[in-house]
Amino acid sequence: MEILSNKKLTEIRERDVLYMWSQNDAPVSLYIHNPFCRTVCKFCAYRGMLPQYGDIETYYRKILPRQLCKYSDIIRSSYISSCFFGGGTPSLISPKDLKSILNMIPNFSNIREKFFEIHPAYTTLELLDVLAEYKFNNIILGLQSFDSKTLLTTNRPPVSENKVKFIIEEIHKRGMFAWLDIVGFINCSEEELGIFINDIRKACLLQPDEISICPNFYYKHSVANSAIRELNECLKKLSGFHLYKSEMSFEAIKFMYERKKAIRLVRDNSRVEEYMNYIDVNDRPDNEKQAILGIGSFENENRDTFSLCRVNNKLVRYVERIVSGELKYYFVNSI
Ligand SMILES: C[S@@+](CC[C@H](N)C(=O)[O-])C[C@H]1O[C@@H](n2cnc3c(N)ncnc32)[C@H](O)[C@@H]1O
Ligand code: SF4
For ligand 2, what atom is nearest to the CA of residue 144? Predict the structure, then answer.
């Protein structure tokens, strides 16, 4: 999801979008968007919108099904390498509506990597049951921080450590991998840095399969140097976790930190890395020979669902947006 200035956009017709996909010659990562959040966190780069009464049902029973229908032939005839339900807060969908949506995706059971983002305050066991039934592998839990004061100042309902532990155990019981997202709210104080490091240590004790560590993209990070040093020291001492596809070193952490990429820890005895190819696509979408088909949007002019289609080895990027009730597509002229 991203904000684009209108200058960069040129409207295209829906039938041209569908024709382009019929010519796509790369494996496809399917992204299904959830536009809503119960509270909008001040720090969030992907923030959803607060739903009005009935919006969630309208979206999942009318708008998204209509969109999925349009793409069903494309999905059926493409090699879909992964499917990601992101947002916003996808776990706001009811288990029943989720089942209907999943039943509409052609050959869904053949998709090897399936991801779903859940918010610990808005997740039910019934939803986890549906995710397990449809063989999702990776359930991404947005923890952000264990520190309730930090969460409250970012407009996020705090969730107890016990509840996070319980959700991870329930994900594992159902045979899925549990991922934890942590944001470092480090701006300029050593105290914030201390909370961040403490969050990482606590997260490891809960034994998730993956931990995505993101220093807040928007902060100036006047403590960046000490943060990278402390992070390196902390990560080196953690037993039972390693860096995804990289040796643990000061340089590796600095590289990801400065590029605003998640620093990904993987539990040593977990098989989650066998189901993480999507991450490579997502982190380097312009380099990999891969397409991304983003489906779903609502009336939120600040956020667009983007897609990357590959035709004759050329990369075409466009966004989907609903403007005054009407679905529109725009080419992105410059990346
Ligand atoms: C699209 S959000 C979905 C999370 C889910 N709605 C929740 O809150 O639990 C995906 C992740 O991006 C990360 N994120 C969002 N804004 C960020 C920012 N400004 N800096 C760093 N990471 C951020 C958070 O860790 C978040 O869990
Ligand atoms: S972190 Fe999650 S809940 Fe908070 S605004 Fe972002 S997407 Fe919504």
Answer: 1
